Amino acid sequence: MKDNCKNTMIFGSSHDYIGREICRQMRLIKLPSRAMLIRQGDTGDRCYILIDGLVDVYCKDDSHILTCDETTTDLQYNVVKVTTDYGEYKATLGPGAVVGDVVLLNPSARRNATVIVSKRTTECCLVYLGRVDYVRLIRTVSMETSHYVQAEVLDYMYLFQKWPTADRMKLVAQMRSTTFRANDYLYRAGTIATTMFVLVSGEAMERQNFNLLESSRPLASKHNAAEVKINIELMLLGPGEIANEHAFLKANQVGAFDIKAVTDVHALCISRHMFECMTVSDKDFVQDMYLKLVALAADRDDYRRERLEFGSRYPDAHVAMCVGLRYTDADLVRMRCALGRGT
């Protein structure tokens, strides 16, 4: 049945999980030969999929159509006379065919053809889905499916490598999803960090600004000393990476650098309360994640200090962060382990 649903404009681009749930909501009906399923011109709210049997499709000129609501008429599913004119014969549909799916998306749409169980069929089996059930189901399942999509990001993160799938799903369900436009700030230096981010898509840059006396630079004259404002790019963060762990893990919860979106960023937020409730657990995979996060934060701080030292010595040398040369979180943790500095 799920394979038959893929042939329609509604279900064709849907996630498999949504397709399975829609099939569970459908109801089975059985109609005798010559029973009317759909009448042209009527309004309705049901989509039908043929399971067994044949149906004939007829269409007539719009000027000769009498319209009514399927939910209030007594004609629906009744056996009709062979002599009744329902217009020109168009086609015979068999198992797997879908009829009436347009009304699920457009409540004001009218049936554009008449569908009657073929006289060559003694009994026709169909399943149908009402518009109300469809809308309710799509809203619910879309939210659950978004959790699956977001949980896939955690699957590739070194920090959550040992987490069971069920626990990752619970964690994602507790995270707040947020978006930042390009040039928006995820974090401003000097403010209290209340949130840590898991980047789902997009890129963000850590930047630190500070003033440097020009007299400290080589070949500078003491009489010409002046303050120079330096903007140093510390680290480029991409999908599957943690952002703002520096200020988040500090005792005073204040960071020295900004985190600014380079492109549009979609991120999952980990609040301080959520993080504290999560890390008090004595489960092995939770403690493993916490130790890796602390080690990652230490390695990142070492890397930032090197960038700052280089920037203060050579303020005119702009060394941009390159995506292709960027160390990932997993790389930093592995290097730390290789140097014997713990997990």
UniProtKB/TrEMBL annotation:
PROSITE patterns: CNMP_BINDING_3
Native organism: Aphanomyces invadans
Domain Cyclic nucleotide-binding: 10-138, 159-296
Organism placement in taxonomy: Eukaryota, Sar, Stramenopiles, Oomycota, Saprolegniomycetes
Entry-linked InterPro entries: cNMP-bd_dom (IPR000595), cNMP-bd_dom_sf (IPR018490), RmlC-like_jellyroll (IPR014710)
Domain of life assignment: Eukaryota
CDD domains hit by this protein: CAP_ED
Record's protein name: Cyclic nucleotide-binding domain-containing protein
Transmembrane regions: none
